[in-house]
Amino acid sequence: MMEVEDTDKKRLRQLMIERLTKLATSEERLEQIEAIYKKLYASREWASSQAIGVTIAVEFEFPTQPLIQAALASGKRVAVPRSLPGRTLDFHWIDQSSLYIRSKFGVEEPKEDHPAAPEDLDLLIVPGLVFQSSGYRIGFGGGFYDRFLSEYNGKTLSLVFEEQMNEDWQPGPFDVPVEKIITRN
Fold this sequence. Notes:
Distance between the termini: 26 Å
Binding site for ATP: 9-13, 137-145
Pfam families: 5-FTHF_cyc-lig
Number of helices: 5
GO molecular function, one term: ATP binding
Family: Belongs to the 5-formyltetrahydrofolate cyclo-ligase family.
CATH class: Alpha Beta
Keywords: ATP-binding, Ligase, Magnesium, Metal-binding, Nucleotide-binding
């Protein structure tokens, strides 16, 4: 299998966005969300975590607001990333009253400055568009999470619709896998 070139990754991203947009209004999506959350909340990673890093999902992604609300309600701390120049991320603590601004990428990011050090996060929920069972993922193309993951030592997982699984591509040299993929099955 050859390494996927940038144009191939762009094509896979676009195809997945189209697929997820179609899935967004289906009953199938709701069934998958419910099953995936049930598995997450029963997982060792969730039970042992006290501080979670998670992106606020855009419309077609796996919804993270329920996870954020459940984490805060159970006393866990939650941090949400901001994208920075140099294609890096920094995380900021949020609570029920936090305010957000929309980034240039269309993602909600914390307005207030409450920095969370990477070592304070014991679980990172990593977004993406295309996933392999080995944990490799294709994100949105900036390498933000791969850069963060290359320095992060906590637990990592992704919440993934079955439609996002695709083994027919080769990870690049800078791609960093997540430790666990949670799907409905």
